[in-house]
Design goal:
The structure holds 2 protein chains of 2 kinds. Chain A is an all-alpha fold. Chain A contains 14 helices and no strands. Chain B is mainly alpha-helical. Chain B contains 12 helices and no strands. The longest helix of chain B is centred in the C-terminal third of the chain and has 39 residues. Chain B is flat and about 85 Å long. The chains are: A mainly alpha, B mainly alpha.
Chain lengths: 309, 306
């Protein structure tokens, strides 16, 4: 049962691989085809830029993200608007917003990818086991999945996060706990229908072991769905992380995340709108980028998936 | 048909039971001591112990759950730990506001989403189409609170057309309903677009055009009603999505619904209220899915009951 695990990092690695390579469109390569569509090219570009910003945060940040500098607040104690010294202005405590956003990108990306990785792992495993093994185990697992679908997910995440004084890992785990269900449903349905197909029956008929058939014939067919829904899922986790942060139950300040930057500064949104709308725009951009790439991957990897959701 | 409905109803009840059990397990295993909370910091150990026994918190978990379930069957959601009232009364007092918001949100997202979808499908592969799809992709990728705060900033702070938050008049409803509506419109427009494109390619549309009906008449009488069929089932599922996001939008706009109730209860670890709201939301989700499943075959006989 460990074989799906080995394939999964592909999901999260998809973007960086494309970004690292030169944009030489190969005629049939997946990345070449992604690069030739304006929408997915835009998505990949955004992801690469945000990854660079997150990795190079210490290099690019003009200030220490937690430094409350001397001239960081006006004489009245209000945040400073964007200027040459503070490109995106300062926040409520006089810290440089750009530096906080750069370091916040690390939190958002990390949680987006780790939480989604765990969710994909759980979801795909549950879906494959339930679909392939069938029987009481399969029925039980899918019953549980149905049950989780009826659970108000965000409410659950908020309750869990507000109770366990959240660290980055806890937030990632909580998000994964509520987010694996979609993947489990998709993979279950697909495994079930694969199992009915002739080439699988033929493999079993010629005496291949069930695990061998699973690894050699079922999994490769599931891979494209896992990649597609895994990529789309990053966008959901990014949004969920931001929402938890905004409510103040996500990653705790002073560690910056794009959501908790908005949480800390929301009372000033009418007099210092940049404090809310710059991080807000970044959240939308990151989620949009993964949605665009995921959607394009869906068309490129498996044309029959299109519009099926 | 009757048997199918009965089976689905039974399924739903079982799912709700499961939800209640898992929620109970999670909430009652929390590292919080409700008895100490009720008694206050200065209470003696004896007082705390008395309260614990009074509430039955000293019983084993399964007995506590059985008691809770017994109450549930009589419509009793328990008593709030910190507010001196029944959870069912608190929820009932807040529910109308949430339902009003839901009605407003669904109206907004249908009007916006369907209009966008119809236009995009009719102008397929044009600039209008791609612009609309970019908009719908962006709204699908936007978190509720960002859209909510943006609308507040533009329409309440800058233009001052609508109040900045609160409840009471229709003006209060516009911005929160629009926030949810804009976000939902993204999904609806994409589905409506692809559904319209399917229908536009059907033979009966060609026939309708061939017999000389005006374009508008073909569109309104033949294309749109058929394209709407798969969308109607979505509304049921949408109720579920709505319920799980209600906490955020209500706290952005200070809307006094069950989301706010839950949020305040979460901050004070008032477990019976959290439990009550979770169950009410789960009910809404299950009923929404049930409606989607049962109504879809009624309006479109091609969808067979499983």
């Amino acid at each position: 049962m460990n074989s799906p695990v080995g394939h999964l990092p592909v999901t999260d690695g998809a973007a960086p691989v494309a970004g690292g390579g030169r944009p030489v469109p190969r005629r049939h390569g997946v990345f070449g085809r992604l690069l030739r569509r304006p929408s997915s090219l835009f998505g990949l570009l955004i992801i690469v830029l945000i990854v660079i910003a997150a990795v190079g945060a210490p290099l690019f940040a003009p200030w220490d993200p937690n430094e409350q500098s001397f001239d960081g607040l006006t004489i009245e104690g209000a945040p400073v608007p964007p200027s040459a010294t503070y490109p995106f202005g300062t926040d409520l405590l006089g810290r440089d917003l750009l530096s906080r956003l750069l370091y916040g990108a690390r939190t958002s990306l990390f949680i987006g990818i780790v939480a989604n990785g765990i969710a994909v792992l759980i979801g795909a495993t549950v879906g494959i086991v339930a679909g392939y093994a069938g029987g009481w185990l399969g029925a039980g697992l899918m019953r549980f999945t149905d049950l989780m679908m009826a659970f108000p997910a965000l409410l659950l995440a908020i309750v869990l996060a507000s109770i366990f004084q959240p660290s980055v890992w806890i937030v990632a785990l909580v998000i994964a706990m509520v987010n694996w269900v979609q993947m489990a449903r998709v993979i279950y349905t697909e495994t079930r229908s694969l199992k009915e197909r002739e080439f699988i029956s033929a493999q079993i008929a010629i005496g291949s072991g069930r695990l061998r058939v699973l690894g050699r014939h079922v999994l490769p067919h599931l891979l494209s769905s896992i990649i597609v829904f895994g990529t789309l899922g990053i966008s959901t986790t990014v949004l969920l992380e931001a929402t938890l942060g905004y409510l103040g139950v996500g990653v705790q300040p002073p560690t910056p995340s794009w959501g908790n930057i908005i949480f800390e500064n929301q009372t000033y949104f009418s007099s210092a709108p940049w404090l809310v709308f710059i991080p807000g725009a970044l959240i939308v951009l990151l989620a949009l980028a993964f949605n665009l790439v995921g959607d394009a991957l869906r068309d490129v990897l498996d044309p029959t998936l299109k519009g099926r959701h | 048909m009757g048997g199918h409905v009965a089976r689905r109803l039974l399924d739903s009840v079982l799912i709700l039971l499961g939800v209640s059990f898992i929620a109970f397990l999670l909430l009652y295993l929390l590292p919080a001591d409700p008895a100490r909370q009720i008694a206050g910091r200065s209470a003696t150990a004896q007082t705390v112990q008395n309260i614990r026994e009074q509430l039955g918190l000293d019983l084993p978990l399964w007995q506590q759950y059985a008691r809770y379930l017994g109450g549930l069957l009589q419509g009793d959601l328990g008593r709030s730990y910190l507010q001196r009232s029944q959870v069912s009364e608190l929820v009932a007092a807040r529910l109308p506001a949430t339902l009003l918001l839901m009605a407003g949100a669904i109206a907004c997202e249908l009007v916006l989403g369907l209009t966008m979808g119809v236009i995009a499908a009719l102008r397929r592969n044009s600039r209008t189409d791609s612009a609309l799809m970019i908009v719908s992709f962006t709204t699908v990728s936007a978190p509720q609170f960002v859209v909510g705060i943006l609308l507040l900033y533009v329409f309440a702070v800058q233009l001052q057309w609508f109040p900045i938050g609160g409840y009471g008049t229709w003006q209060h409803l516009v911005l929160p309903a629009l926030t949810l509506g804009i976000l939902g419109a993204g999904w609806y427009s994409r589905m409506m677009r692809s559904s319209m494109i399917d229908v536009l390619g059907q033979d009966f549309v060609r026939t309708a055009n061939a017999k000389g009906l005006s374009r508008l008449r073909v569109l309104m009488r033949h294309v749109v009603p058929n394209a709407l069929l798969p969308i109607i089932a979505m509304i049921g599922i949408d109720i579920g999505l709505f319920m799980s996001g209600i906490v955020v939008v209500e706290s952005v706009f200070g809307w006094p619904g069950i989301g706010q109730l839950a949020w305040q209860a979460i901050q004070r670890v008032d477990i019976p209220i959290i439990m009550g709201v979770t169950l009410v939301s789960a009910c809404a989700i299950v009923i929404g899915n049930l409606l989607a499943d049962l109504i879809a075959p009624l309006i479109d006989p091609r969808i067979k009951l499983r």
